Amino acid sequence: MNLTPIKAMLKAILGPYYEVIKDYILFPMYDVIADLWTPDENLFIPYLIMSILISYPVYRTQIAAGESGSLRHFLRFLIPARIYKHKSAILDYKFYIVNSYVSKILFGWILIGSSNLIGSSINSTLNHVLGKPGPQWQPTATSRIVYTLLIVVVFDLGAYLAHYLEHRIQVLWEFHKTHHSAEVLTPITTFRNHPVDEVLENIFISVFVGSLTAVFSYLYPSGIEQYKIINVSVLMFLYFFVANLLHSHVWLSYGWVLNHIFYSPCMHQIHHSSEQRHFDCNFGRVFSVWDKIFGTLYVPREKEELRYGISNNEHLAFTSVWSCYFVPFKKAFAHLKPQSSELNTTVINDSKDVL
Fold first, then answer.
1. What are the C-alpha distances in Å from 10 to residues 1, 6, 29, 170, 205?
2. Where in the chain are the domains?
3. Is 223 exposed, middle or buried (CB count within 10 Å of its CB: 0-12, 13-18, 19+)?
4. Ramachandran quadrant class, 262 (left: phi over 0; alpha: psi -120 to 50; beta: rest)
5. 0.70 cut: is pTM over it?
């Protein structure tokens, strides 16, 4: 979509205020709409279409006896009003729009290009420690395949570790509750992430991906590229076909064997369950092997009925966009205060013992 004429018109109208309004008001909203035609975003229209096509055989297996399986019935299955009109889903829609502004204004400088900066720093270190130039290898089909696979592997490992810490460290969990406070799951729930969550995950992913690209840049100084489809890693392109089903009511399992290798949508739906048997499991994104290695894997043998939200009805504290942002800060600080008091008490008692 060519926006040049529109930009020129706005610049003429707004004059010196154009840059400020463009950066902080117009472009964030444009980013929301642009997700529909941006290949590295979940909401890219072809990915949504693929999600619909994949959902159809799932729907066919769940048709009750006597039902026709008509297009109208399929659409009711795909977009049920009880989910997409739920107050939690409506909050998702609001948060998605507002967070587009918040992320750009507060954290854009962190989220943009950080893996490149890390990669450049590590590459400079390698040149200094191991000597320059490096091996001067030339990329081959095999090396490109390996690079394409490893990029996804380290990306997924970084995402797994960040997600694991968000559940296991109480202060971080308070921010991650914003995401888990959703009472129903839709593709827009993907974006119900507190900015603190986004920064943490971006740091982990950037460190792992940046480190790998630095190593390959040292080995292949002339450059090496992943195999891509419409400028997206071919493996991530395939992952995006099902990515929108992770946050949905569509129960899609890859089967007992493949679920131990690849992260299927039903496994993430289980991750969102508020039932105790599902706590702290299935932290992966693309592969489930990390969960297997670290002992956090839960693979269902059959479809399970799930209830979403946070245990003890904590999700009821997240009823507005405002609360999604600020309740986590309030609760996180509450965890830090007792620790400080306990530390001070310990120090005082130790001092008395010494005296």
1. 17, 6, 15, 47, 37
2. 107-332
3. exposed
4. beta
5. yes
CA–CA dist 298, 301 (Å, integer): 10
pLDDT tens, per residue, the chain with 355 residues: 555 676 677 677 766 666 655 555 555 566 667 778 888 889 999 999 999 999 999 998 887 556 667 888 999 999 999 999 999 999 999 999 888 877 766 655 554 456 666 767 777 777 767 777 668 889 999 999 999 999 999 999 999 999 999 999 999 999 999 999 999 999 999 999 999 999 899 889 988 998 898 889 889 988 899 999 988 999 999 999 999 999 999 999 999 999 999 999 999 999 999 999 999 999 999 999 999 999 999 999 999 999 999 988 999 999 999 999 999 999 999 988 755 444 444 443 443 343 3
Instruction: Indicate the burial class of 314 (C-beta count within 10 angstroms; 0-12, 13-18, 19 or more).
Output: middle
